[in-house]
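FIELD: query
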Amino acid sequence: MARSPEESLKATLARVAPGTALRDGLERILRGRTGALIVLGSDRTIDSICSGGFEIGIEFSPTRLRELAKMDGAIVCDKDASNIVRAAVQLVPDSSIETQESGTRHRTAERVAIQTGVPVISVSQSMQIIALYVNGLRHVLEGSEKVLARANQALATLERYSARLDQVTSSLSALEIEAMVTVRDVAVTLQRQEMVRRIAEEIAQYVLELGEDGRLLSLQLEELTMGRGPGSDVIIRDYAGANASPEDIDAAVQALMDLGPTELIDLSRIAGIIGHAGGMDVLDAGVQPRGYRLLAGLKSVPKAVADRLVDHFDGLQNLMAATIEDLMTVDGIGDQRARVVREGLSRMAEASLLDRFL
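FIELD: result
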């Protein structure tokens, strides 16, 4: 399966992260105040736009990259940057490809990346920056100090948002047990989950960009995101209605992820995604969960069994009121599993109510 531009950019960032030989070579070029144009891939498409230069076919090293950058022309490496294939090459991409760049080196880099699908690195001699061009995306590499400063700010934000998400999730659980959930409660929980997901994704990008300098940041991110509980898909499935297909759930999750920053603040937009359209008036309408979210919190209950429980009891309130004997009437539920479900739901109910009122 072809990678998306974002996935390709992440893979390229990993190749040029601090601690890699390629990043060492790029920083040597910057310190030497020379420019460079480096293509990370060698195939027939690349060969077709290469003119002149000479073949090298030697093992990659930072010092070799630095010395070859002193010459005019581009340097072509293999996709893993383990070998330098060609040097002093003139790249002749399709001039009809639109580019927003003004400098010759950057214009060439962007066009080559778009035309071939191969990542291209441009080192600017005058501006002293390293720019990556990947499938139409442009990303400027920055020093570890600047990236770490932004990452630490994002980490503090993630900590606050995670604490708030825990509060609204606990409140939703208590309201579900009391049968007092409104569309607003569900929308707020989905909103907070999406906010936390986006911030965590941003920090993961910083970790990738920092390479070996991001080890501590990676541990902090893992600590804040581990044990986060059921995702947005489970909540949407709980409230989207019995007729919602798996494709409908996936589409709703994607629609939530596609919301812009301003749209994410609008709770009525989120409500519409889960099938409760009607503007602000619908937010105070009562809704009943089916029970998927709470059952997902019982790790010993397989998803298939949870689905059968929900289908059989048709609503969380009926499931909460079921006895062990009632639970055992469901296919795949024996005495032991029935007790696990009954006791697990009871513990969740007690914990949620205590968190809410204490």
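FIELD: remark
The first helix runs from residue 5 to 15.
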